[in-house]
What does this fold into?
Amino acid sequence: DAKTTQPNSMESNEEEPVHLPCNHSTISGTDYIHWYRQLPSQGPEYVIHGLTSNVNNRMASLAIAEDRKSSTLILHRATLRDAAVYYCIPIGGTSYGKLTFGQGTILTVHP
Amino acid sequence: DGGITQSPKYLFRKEGQNVTLSCEQNLNHDAMYWYRQDPGQGLRLIYYSQIVNDFQKGDIAEGYSVSREKKESFPLTVTSAQKNPTAFYLCASSIQPGQGKTEAFFGQGTRLTVV
It folds into this structure.
């Protein structure tokens, strides 16, 4: 499995942008980079994913480094509802059918 | 609506009893997964299945068993051999295992308490 490194925690103020980094230096060329988040006492929910190009959806943006060894999840205007644990997961050639989570980043949003 | 259903949401059992957690999906997904989450910790993979009648051990399979007789169902049995069964259990599914092109979907979890 491709290994990931994320900061244990980050803090933001409401309505400010948040940049959540993830290092995945052992990622393979066929691995997609997925981001999920987990609100307290709930199952994880999908946020965004990409392969090489930057991606945008209604929830967030994903910026992928040119060498694909790192990526950044961008929440353009944080809300209190965005307070969650965010997981970065490479999925594809190195995962062999598994879906393995790391420790993730705990995001705290201050009003 | 399409999705994953885990039942029950809360489950209590006496120590030494086996208990089976239900996971059903109507998304027509091939791959299904079971995870365990302890307080303040991340998700740990118990078992996963890439196709009907086939499944593989994850990182913490000891004390657990699964079956995949139907595409839409992937029940997890927590046996009496599991030393610390009290935890939050999550089920997930994805269209194709390990492909990465599409996202995984998660149930809302079952909180198991063994007393």
Chain A has a mean pLDDT of 92. Chain A is about 0% helix and 45% strand. The two ends of chain A are 38 Å apart (CA to CA). Residues 31 and 92 of chain A are 4 Å apart (CA to CA).
